Structure formats: C-alpha cells, structure tokens
Amino acid sequence: MPIDSATARIVQRPTTLADGRDLIYFDDADTTLGPERAVDERELDPRPATATMRQDVLTGDWISVAASRQNRVMLPPAEADPLAPQTPTNPSEIPSRYDVAVFENKSPSFGPGLPGLEAERPLAAPAPAGLADLADLGFERTRASVGRCEVVCFSPEHTGSLGGQSVSRVRTVIEAWASRTEALSALPGVQQVFPFENRGEAIGVTLHHPHGQIYAYPYVTPVTKRLLASTDRLGPGLFADILARELAGPRVVLEGEHWAAFVPFAARWPLEVHLLPKRHVPDFAATSGAERDELAVLYRTLLRGVDRLYDTPTPYIAAWHQAPVHVGRDALRLHLQLTSPRRAADKLKFLAGSEAAMGAWIADVPPEAAAERLRLAIARVEAEA
C-alpha cells in the first residue's frame, strides 16, 4: 500500500562540531525530539591535512594514502562509543540525542580540501588544470585526495544495523542520502558520490554502532568506468534491459511498484542482490517522494530477509552505485549491490589467488539457488510483519 511521502516532515538541523566539521541532524517524520541541539564544546586537535593520492602507472587507478586513518577507533566498548550522543563520561562526535546524524569524518580518505582552496590546503603536485588531468597516465604522479567523507549514523543506540530500524527511520536515512548526494555533488572537484554500509566484523567493521558512510570522490571510480564502458557498447538502455530480463526470470526476490530486487545472472558472491528503481534515475537526489517511501519499506524487508538466512546476523556490504556527477547520467541508473562473503552458516568466501590477483571470479553458489533461499527468508519476514 502506498504511503504518504515523508519528505516534507523530515527536518534537517545543520550545525558544526568544535573543529569546524559539518554535522547535520535529520529528524524522523514522527520524531519525539525537540528542535534544540547542544553545542559541541570539546577541545579538539586541528584536522589532519588532506591525504595524497598516488597513481598506479600499470592501471591508471588513483590510490589514496591516508595515514591518519591508522588512528581511528577499533571496536570500542559501548561506554566509549564515538557515534553515541555525548555524555559527561563520553566526549563522542555527536553532542545531542538524535534520530539520524551525518557528520564529516575526523580522519577522512578524501578531503577536507577542495580545488579552489589551494592557498589553504595546497595540491601535492598542482597542474594548471587542477584535477582535470587525472585521466592522464605517468610515472610517480601525485595529487591531493580532495573530496569529502561523511559518517551516517542510523540510530543513537550502540548496536544494530539499518535493517533493524523502523520504516520511518529507514526513510529518514534515505532522505539523508538524497540530501547529501545533492550537496556533495555540488562541491568543486567532486566527480562521484557513493553511499554505503559495511556491516559485520567479517567485512572489517571497526564500530558496532549502526552506521554507514558517504564518500565524495575527486574522480570516477574504476568500477563505474567499467559500467560506462558497458553502456557505451550496449546502449544507454542497458539497465532497463537488465531489469526487464530479470523481472521475467527466476531470480527476482522482491518487487514493488517502483523498485525490484534480484540476484544477478552472473553473481560473484555467495549472496549478491541488486535493487533497482523501475524508472531511470541517476542518483538518490533524483528520486521522487513516492519512490523513497516505497524504498524504505522494501529495503528494510530485504535487509531483514538477508538476516533470516542464518541464525546469526549476516555480514554484508550495501553499496549504492550512483551515476557520476558530470558524465553518464542518462545511462547509469542508481542501484544497490548488496554482497556478502557468507557461503554457509559457519563458512566465509575469501578472495584468494584467482579473484584477488587476477579478478577471475569463481562462484560457489548458483544464483538461482541463492535467489530461492532469499525469497523463502523474505517470506518468513513478511509473514511475521
């Protein structure tokens, strides 16, 4: 059943942290919080300098060298949770109680520098065209890792994941993704915006607090370049063609009026699900209120189904692919790629020689079998709703 759009009732409350980083509170449409927010009164060290990128001359890829990330917190106890609201004994990153909070990462892989701010944070090896020469290839090339990295807190609670939140809360997170995609896409030098959630220690998560991240890159990422190459070869209707084929086949796991989820034909991972809008939209900022409303319901159901596959929570990476800011927007469609290395209750798929070194994948689970198992798990979730 369609639900009224919550867009107009989700309130944004922007502020700054003690060291000048942006913090935006997103209040649920049905929030119980008042409008007041505490001031961050901590005494903080200056932010680290913008990291440096180095180009791999063999592939043309840019590698960000962000040494400050070595200092980030590693699986702290609940009483030292840096994403919980501040208390007298826990000087965390967020001063007040919140529904959803988005703030600039303290130790980012990209930023805080941006082109045009060279006098403040100079490029490592400036070129006359700024960052316009990133597509060139040469030996020992460096550039500043300009851009932004933001943390998206799904809840003030210490543990959980996005799938464990209410529909209203998931809707607020989607609104945050859309709002931040629009804002970050407008920053100078940003070429692509990527919202994602890493869930579980098997993925490498360093905080149990339910949260995700948003990266704003100064280049179009290698995976997206490959997608652009495919749309160049097969036409700008590639994603529409994929969706039409999948909707007529055996791998669909969830479908609504505006969105559909399926296990792809050539899934690499033991669990891999793609979720696409039925009309072409390049990113979250271009989605309608009705699309965001339905996504809150379907995405929550999908995540809960993933967790019903086994008796314990499933580790995953939920990667929201968006079209680049300046190219391919008529061809690349917003879509989720959710992947998990879990191939059995007590077994993980590790990327060994063939996958890690050569990019030559071997799938352990037939996609049709994976789709059937996930459909059954989703059916159990829906029966309990």
UniProtKB/TrEMBL annotation:
<comment type="similarity">
    <text>Belongs to the galactose-1-phosphate uridylyltransferase type 1 family.</text>
</comment>
<dbReference type="GO" id="GO:0033499">
    <property type="term" value="P:galactose catabolic process via UDP-galactose, Leloir pathway"/>
</dbReference>
<dbReference type="InterPro" id="IPR005849">
    <property type="entry name" value="GalP_Utransf_N"/>
</dbReference>
<dbReference type="InterPro" id="IPR001937">
    <property type="entry name" value="GalP_UDPtransf1"/>
</dbReference>
<dbReference type="InterPro" id="IPR036265">
    <property type="entry name" value="HIT-like_sf"/>
</dbReference>
<keyword id="KW-0479">Metal-binding</keyword>
<dbReference type="GO" id="GO:0008108">
    <property type="term" value="F:UDP-glucose:hexose-1-phosphate uridylyltransferase activity"/>
</dbReference>
<feature type="domain" description="Galactose-1-phosphate uridyl transferase C-terminal">
    <location>
        <begin position="238"/>
        <end position="379"/>
    </location>
</feature>
<keyword id="KW-0548">Nucleotidyltransferase</keyword>
<dbReference type="GO" id="GO:0005737">
    <property type="term" value="C:cytoplasm"/>
</dbReference>
<dbReference type="GO" id="GO:0008270">
    <property type="term" value="F:zinc ion binding"/>
</dbReference>
<keyword id="KW-0299">Galactose metabolism</keyword>
<dbReference type="InterPro" id="IPR019779">
    <property type="entry name" value="GalP_UDPtransf1_His-AS"/>
</dbReference>
<protein>
    <recommendedName>
        <fullName>Galactose-1-phosphate uridylyltransferase</fullName>
        <ecNumber>2.7.7.12</ecNumber>
    </recommendedName>
</protein>
<comment type="pathway">
    <text>Carbohydrate metabolism; galactose metabolism.</text>
</comment>
<feature type="active site" description="Tele-UMP-histidine intermediate">
    <location>
        <position position="211"/>
    </location>
</feature>
<dbReference type="Pfam" id="PF01087">
    <property type="entry name" value="GalP_UDP_transf"/>
</dbReference>
<keyword id="KW-0862">Zinc</keyword>
<keyword id="KW-0119">Carbohydrate metabolism</keyword>
<dbReference type="InterPro" id="IPR005850">
    <property type="entry name" value="GalP_Utransf_C"/>
</dbReference>
<keyword id="KW-0808">Transferase</keyword>
<dbReference type="Pfam" id="PF02744">
    <property type="entry name" value="GalP_UDP_tr_C"/>
</dbReference>
<feature type="domain" description="Galactose-1-phosphate uridyl transferase N-terminal">
    <location>
        <begin position="141"/>
        <end position="220"/>
    </location>
</feature>
